[in-house]
């Protein structure tokens, strides 16, 4: 199959045909590092995966859009131009510009640039043009403010699972999601996610953006989705009020004229990358007296083009195109056993001095209500005192030990930002024809180098090291080598994930039964992996029944301009 639509129609068609060209190109297997495409020849390299010892063909740094720099900053992704010389795909492209996370200073790319719309492809060494393989696309997480594709070596999954693996970059933070509520915004963004918009299926990205997600597309455009620790929710789309607040803040920080939005946007395009990141860095903007990290500064909005409506509103209408498409997908969704641990250990040290505690030792009861729950309710529930009292009562107790109370604080972060949103999406999905599976990842293996004495369970993102060899790509993080038991867990995850990609049924050492409305099966992935029923019913019922849903923007007030 040759690559089509290099400059014609949509850029997303080019991305997909890159994948299929690498799978089906008419080439000699003796030199699979060289492939021909309609956009031009591509040369990759042959390496040996350190985990499996098998050869893998890698095609690194393939551009899938014009560099979004200069006048193209903030704009829609443009189709890449054809090339005549052989494209050198032996080195990774730059990561997208981003701020360095204070509590993870080593978790950063070696090279950053606005010119970052690159993808990487990993192909098993025994590929045959007459045998089609599943294509699995990894979209890294990081709250839409951090992350890069190069840190995820797809060779392990590719060689062990016999699949094609693709990792991709997308624009982050203000460069991918700048929005103003004004007609001047007719040329930008939300295009962090639009860079990931394949073959016109915007609904797919509605369900995945903002988190760790694995996609599989087949030629008939039906798909399977693995949503790891994140799904669409009320926290990851901005309201008009929030958009206006951010616009005013950005104008003050940059001295760009807010009285003329056309001049404002032109001014922003002229600002140096580092200065713009400094002005919008969510970590430096955090207050010192309250935990306010539940929403990045720049995230998607309902724009009437890529997002026709808030996905949650669309999903509630079972006859909507979004709901019908979502229901047609096969879905695996789940989270780790202590999602809040990383945020607690990363953010709370900035706040502990004002409240007189040491997060490594404990998180006091008074801080949980005053410093965590109160700002959360103020921001998302209009300071509803009844909601605040219910949540405080649920997550605090005068009779629990300090270790137990600290663990409850971490659980509040996990439940309010991850757990119940994922359970709700599983409930939505199970009523449709697509197959539904739930998991909980419980194996403890810290990747950030910190684990408080009170902390129990697996932190956010800890399952990723069992799929990608992070200790090789991020040596400064001191990730330890696998024990034999941990290696078995990694092998099982890759087997479950790739078999699901291949046929829609996750197969592995333990039978994984589908999630349903009665038994509510989930696979607890740990040293001893077991099939269980009804994950944390008390917590899920509390958030789904006792606490009202966060209100979405009114229908008449929800469409804003997301293009500068």
Automatic annotation (TrEMBL):
Carboxylesterase type B domain ranges (all copies): 34-182, 214-543
Q: Which domain of life is it from?
A: Eukaryota
The record's SUPFAM superfamilies line, in alphabetical order, gives: alpha/beta-Hydrolases
**InterPro entries per the UniProt record, alphabetical:** AB_hydrolase_fold, CarbesteraseB, Carboxylesterase_B_CS, Neuroligin/BSAL
Q: Which Pfam families match?
A: COesterase
Signal peptide range in chain numbering: 1-30
Protein's UniProt name: Carboxylesterase type B domain-containing protein
Q: Upper lineage ranks? A: Eukaryota, Metazoa, Spiralia, Lophotrochozoa, Mollusca
